[in-house]
Amino acid sequence: xxxxxxxxxxxxxxxxxxxxxxxxxxxxxxxxxxxxxxxxxxxxxxxxxxxxxxxxxxxxxxxxxxxxxxxxxxxxxxxxxxxxxxxxxxxxxxxxxxxxxxxxxxxxxxxxxxxxxxxxxxxxxxxxxxxxxxxxxxxxxxxxxxxxxxxxxxxxxxxxxxxxxxxxxxxxxxxxxxxxxxxxxxxxxxxxxxxxxxxx
Length: 200
Known about the structure:
By secondary structure, the protein is α+β, with helices and mostly antiparallel strands. The chain has 2 domains: 1-38; 45-198, Rieske Iron-sulfur Protein (3-layer Sandwich). The chain is built from 3 helices and 11 strands; from the N terminus they run ααβββαββββββββ. The chain has a 3-stranded antiparallel sheet with strand order 1-10-9, with no helix packed on it. A 3-stranded antiparallel sheet has the order 2-3-5, with no helix packed on it. A 3-stranded antiparallel sheet has the order 6-7-8, with no helix packed on it. β2 (62-67) and β3 form a beta hairpin. The longest helix has 29 residues, at 8-36.
């Protein structure tokens, strides 16, 4: 017989040793492969919530911050602007934000947690251009119906100062309101919301 005189314990030892070495080698190969599938530190930071101090934003002033690679606008609206928003309902496509992406706690005419502070993603809902902030009333290039808002120069969409889209323009929905919450009266965090998002 071929197997006569073969030391079976030696064969078992060699088989076990090779199995262990193979498993360790496979582990060494798998670790870098699996590690490269994890998001990078830069990618994780890009999607992290952003904390913003709003204490120095003057009435009527707009500031911009970046969140998830998108521009986010924070506007301190004046009492006059808040009054004007109430008069625009007949001209708007979705005045009550029934078809728009926003947190539940901002589904109101002002589209905000606090009426004076408006937070929105600064990208047109038509093709993603960035509208310009046009707070002036009745400028010559936009006409007497313009009561202040955001104008998209790419295809002419109009949004009021609550990010609500006007009827008859290419943009299909209101500007997106990102999830956000207040940490204090003067600090908010974009990217976190204790409420469930509507339309997301």
